[in-house]
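[STRUCTURE TOKENS]
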Amino acid sequence: MTLDPQTAALYEQHAAAWTAARAGKNVDAALRLVDRAGTNPAGPFLDIGAGPGYLTERLPEPVIGLEPVEAFLEILGRRVPAVTRIRGEAGSLPFRSGTVGAALVTSVYVHVARRRLPLALAELHRALADDAPAELVMFGGDLDLEPTEGDHFGGRKYSHWPESDLRRVLIGAGFAVENWVTDDTTGWPHYEISLRRAPTLPDIVGPDMNVLVCGLNPSPYSTSTGIGFARPGNRFWPAALAAGLVTVDRDPRAALAAHGVGMTDLVKRATPRADELTIDEYRQGLTRVEWLCAWLRPRVVCFVGLGGWRAAVDRRAKPGWQPSDLGGSAVYVMPSTSGLNAHAQLDDLTRHLRVVRERGPR
């Protein structure tokens, strides 16, 4: 997931002019981040898409500037000598999980195709420490990685978002939205968004999915590993491997990239046991998953665990294909793969996932 070549080339060509045009730019996002991070963050400050550093210079040390454009990195080094400069992309952060203390992402994801944004946000969630803050600036509207009218440098590609859709994506990515301000004083509506990394799993989803696997909700163990169904004794991954749904154990990103198998949860709140969830949570979660299916159009959405579907849709539902779709995706419901579900054996779970796999390919 990289900055598209046309946009990258324009930034390389016009880096000096772009920097001069940003003189006196509003730096409130950086100041908010410093205030929210406190005096002892769990790791360094990270400015993703740092550009020439007009916001980076407002962040305390240690601070890292990540930037894909070489011309901007050179300006950044002159402007903020203390910064650690890294050439890299927002969609593939070169940091160990949980090591970033606070992140600034201003007008960066605006260059990401909308259906690719969930994975970019999942990378941010992975890199941030527990409960770490982030500040985002996004553009309002309805545009999907296209040139925008009025661009002074002509030809850069942008994505603009309806607010309701972007909120759903942020929640699915595992963030709590703490504040949201829409600034209409500029040429394009700007969303100034204060986020905090929530103790949950991010959606691992994208375009062209064959199957969207939907768990009930993550366990604290899974959130600590960053992998759904990760608890020892859970049979999902052994069954998925045996069914040929995936070929790499406990690697949701590989499942998406190699097999078009995405992952989400009906409820984002992590609990030790699924029976701690409420009917209202299931129903609200189903609304989000239905929107996700309508947007990304997986061929099949597979609900792992009967309890959520029964609570939200049909209390008499039985395992197997359901009579109605969800957002245009065929619905399959199967028993829980948890080790606590003694009624379901590994062979049975494998059979269910094999049926899903056979329906899934396009």
Notes: Residues 98 and 216 are 24 Å apart (CA to CA). The radius of gyration is 21 Å.
